[in-house]
TrEMBL record:
Residues 4-235 form the ABC transporter domain. It holds the Pfam family ABC_tran. It comes from Amantichitinum ursilacus. One of its GO terms (biological process) is L-amino acid transport. SUPFAM superfamilies: P-loop containing nucleoside triphosphate hydrolases. This is High-affinity branched-chain amino acid transport ATP-binding protein LivF. The keyword Transferase does not apply. Keywords: Amino-acid transport, ATP-binding, Nucleotide-binding, Transport. Belongs to the ABC transporter superfamily. The keyword ATP-binding applies. GO terms for molecular function: ATP binding; ATP hydrolysis activity; branched-chain amino acid transmembrane transporter activity. It comes from the Bacteria.
Length: 236
């Protein structure tokens, strides 16, 4: 049984047909990446998982449970955490308060151990825990957004363009963190326009075009694929 399965999923925004029969699966322990151009439907796919928008056709299951029509707040309680594009941290709260917000639904007895783990992963967050989050650099905010998601102890972590707009040094650090989390057992679905980095760390990948999957394979296979190279790697 796969951890996550999309079977023939369609999604619409009014008249816009954003997903057109998407089939993907994510196995426990994998890093799976979804690559595609602007507007291909990557963010929509992640949001459809939470029912925003709802799948208009097809089904989504998570750990053997059909979540296609489940309420959004119930889906997030299944252990799925999303780090949205653009990070969306709480800018006026401190770093520590942001991390506390991430632990809202976690057991209080887990807090000390979990925050220690986040600080080990991102030492800069410990050093800046009393600082307002809005004054962090873009890369630090991305670390905070990931740290906040981890405080909820997810079993599946969804990352929507975590490297977008970051300096090269931070991009490296974010991808290294993704690999480290995965080695500790975290299953990760990663949406990226940075196809090169994403395919390098991913076990498998899917290429999304106009709302449909057009190509799939291992990270290595997709990196070597002429179609992928021409559309997403060369010059990019
Ligand atoms: P990007 O990398 O630019 O975010 P994407 O691959 O994530 O691209 P989506 O954001 O999923 O693509 O967009 C897929 C299609 O759905 C696009 O045509 C987009 O214009 C449309 N779309 C996305 N969100 C909405 C919305 N809230 N209302 C109407 N149309 C939308």
């Amino acid at each position: 049984m796969s951890m996550l399965t999309f079977a023939g999923v369609h999604a619409h925004y009014g008249a816009i047909h954003a997903l057109r029969g998407v089939d993907i699966h994510v196995e426990e322990g994998e890093i799976v990446t979804l690559i595609g151009a602007n507007g291909a439907g990557k963010s929509t796919l992640m949001m459809t998982l939470f029912g925003q928008p709802r799948a208009s056709q097809g089904s989504i299951s998570y750990q053997g449970r059909d979540i296609t029509r489940m309420a959004t707040h119930d889906i997030s309680r299944q252990g799925i955490a999303l780090v949205p594009e653009g990070r969306r941290i709480f800018p006026r709260m401190t770093v520590l308060e942001n991390l506390q917000m991430g632990a809202t639904f976690a057991k209080p007895e887990h807090f000390d151990g979990d925050i220690k783990r986040v600080f080990e992963l991102f030492p800069v967050l410990e050093a800046r825990q009393a600082q307002r989050a809005g004054t962090l650099s873009g890369g630090e905010q991305q670390m905070l957004a990931i740290g906040r998601a981890l405080m909820g102890r997810p079993t599946l972590l969804l990352l929507d363009e975590p490297s977008l707009g970051l300096a090269p040094l931070y991009i490296k650090l974010i991808f290294r963190t993704i690999e480290a989390l995965n080695k500790e057992g975290m299953t990760i679905l990663l949406v990226e326009q940075n196809a090169h980095h994403a395919l390098k760390v991913a076990h498998r990948g899917y290429v999304l075009q106009h709302g449909g999957i057009v190509l799939t394979g291992t990270g290595k296979e997709l990196l070597a694929s002429p179609e992928v190279r021409a559309a997403y790697l060369e010059g990019g």
